[in-house]
């Protein structure tokens, strides 16, 4: 399914905008990613954490107009907007929900369709290209997001449909899972630290940027190597979709040894991203929901974890 040339609307996410002369400076002290790395041609993944390093949200961020726009799970946006406004009181920045102002499409194996719109998108992950009011972002090999003003939704749906099949959000999410890109959703809010979702391996954490909320915990986990849980790609049979936050169990421990982060259907079951305890992975006997639940099969991720390389970002 994830190999199909298709597009779909990314209505499961909203857009939080931070605008004004202090927008980047304000966010630099709030987020795991380094806003100094952003420019007109570069986007980034990132997260916002609690003081204890637990992720309140994860997002894709890019520069736009007089500030930044962050795409995150729609169910998280209202709380994040309200909380961030408390810290922005003395900053020359304005925070708003711009979800209704944008239409966003996921485009898979569709570079030709983007080129037809005037968007010659580079192959490098996080590359950004712009044409008029349109923005394209490379999110992983063969996958891109197309951002546009909401009033262009109908026209763009027609134009993309001339070259691509209109697919489902599940097809897009399956591609995200196979790319190994975890995401905080409403049920998993404040459950994971960034390294549990391998966020540092996909460019969403900077260890050179200085202080931000939760930075001390995140840095300690990276430098001291104390993290015992991380993200894995798994497969399981069955007809019931594993919900985010569902516990995972192993005979190695009497309690849960991980949780589902994101799941999508395949032709013969489901694939998912799951946060798992290392010793349970070594044992290999992992079950969904209980020790008697469906067994999980471990698959491979398209990247490797490399602490020395990650801390150079």
Can you walk me through this structure?
The chain has helices spanning 23-28, 74-87, 111-116, 153-161, 169-178, 215-224, 278-283, 307-310; strands at 6-9, 13-19, 44-49, 55-64, 67-73, 94-97, 102-108, 128-131, 134-140, 143-149, 165-166, 229-236, 247-249, 258-266, 269-277, 287-288, 297-299. The protein is α+β, with helices and mostly antiparallel strands. Helices cover 21% and strands 32% of the residues. The longest helix is centred in the N-terminal third of the chain and has 14 residues, at 74-87. The model has no long low-confidence stretch (mean pLDDT 95). The protein contains 8 helices and 17 strands. The strands form 3 sheets. Strands 8-9-10-7-1-11 form a 6-stranded mixed β-sheet, sandwiched between helices. Strands 16-13-14-15-12-17 form a 6-stranded antiparallel β-sheet. It is globular, with a radius of gyration of 19 Å. The two termini are 33 Å apart.
Helix and strand arrangement:
Blueprint: E1 6-9, E2 13-19, H1 23-28, E3 44-49, E4 55-64, E5 67-73, H2 74-87, E6 94-97, E7 102-108, H3 111-116, E8 128-131, E9 134-140, E10 143-149, H4 153-161, E11 165-166, H5 169-178, H6 215-224, E12 229-236, E13 247-249, E14 258-266, E15 269-277, H7 278-283, E16 287-288, E17 297-299, H8 307-310
Parallel strand pairs: 1-11
Antiparallel strand pairs: 1-7, 2-5, 2-6, 3-4, 4-5, 7-10, 8-9, 9-10, 12-15, 12-17, 13-14, 13-16, 14-15
Protein name: Folate-binding protein YgfZ
InterPro entries: GcvT/YgfZ_C (IPR029043), YgfZ/GCV_T_CS (IPR017703), YgfZ/GcvT (IPR045179)
């Amino acid at each position: 399914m994830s190999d199909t040339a298709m597009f779909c609307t990314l209505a499961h996410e909203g857009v939080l905008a931070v605008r004004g002369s202090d927008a980047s400076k304000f966010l630099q002290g709030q987020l795991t990613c380094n806003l100094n790395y952003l420019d007109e041609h570069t986007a980034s993944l990132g997260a916002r954490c609690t003081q204890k390093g637990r992720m309140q949200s994860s997002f894709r961020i890019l520069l736009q107009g007089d500030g930044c726009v962050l795409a995150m799970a729609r169910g998280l946006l209202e709380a994040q907007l309200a909380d961030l406004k408390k810290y922005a009181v003395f900053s020359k920045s304005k925070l708003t929900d711009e979800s209704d102002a944008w239409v966003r499409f996921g485009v898979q194996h569709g570079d030709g369709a983007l080129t037809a719109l005037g968007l010659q998108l580079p192959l490098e992950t996080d590359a950004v290209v712009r044409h008029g009011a349109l923005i394209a972002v490379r999110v992983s090999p063969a996958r891109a997001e197309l951002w546009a003003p909401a009033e262009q939704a109908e026209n763009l749906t027609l134009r993309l449909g001339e070259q691509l099949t209109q697919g489902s959000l599940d097809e897009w999410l399956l591609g995200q899972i196979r790319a190994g890109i975890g995401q905080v959703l409403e049920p998993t809010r404040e459950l994971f630290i960034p390294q549990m979702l391998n966020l540092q391996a996909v460019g969403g954490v900077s260890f050179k940027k200085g202080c931000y909320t939760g930075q001390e915990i995140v840095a300690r986990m990276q430098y001291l190597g104390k993290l015992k849980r991380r993200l894995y790609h798994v497969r399981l049979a069955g007809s019931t979709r594993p919900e985010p936050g569902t516990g995972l169990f192993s005979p190695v421990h009497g309690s849960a040894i991980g949780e589902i982060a994101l799941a999508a259907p395949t032709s013969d079951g489901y694939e998912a991203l799951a946060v798992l305890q290392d010793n349970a992975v070594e044992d290999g006997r992992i079950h969904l929901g209980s020790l008697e639940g469906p067994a999980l099969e471990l698959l491979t991720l398209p990247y490797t974890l490399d602490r020395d390389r990650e801390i150079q970002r």
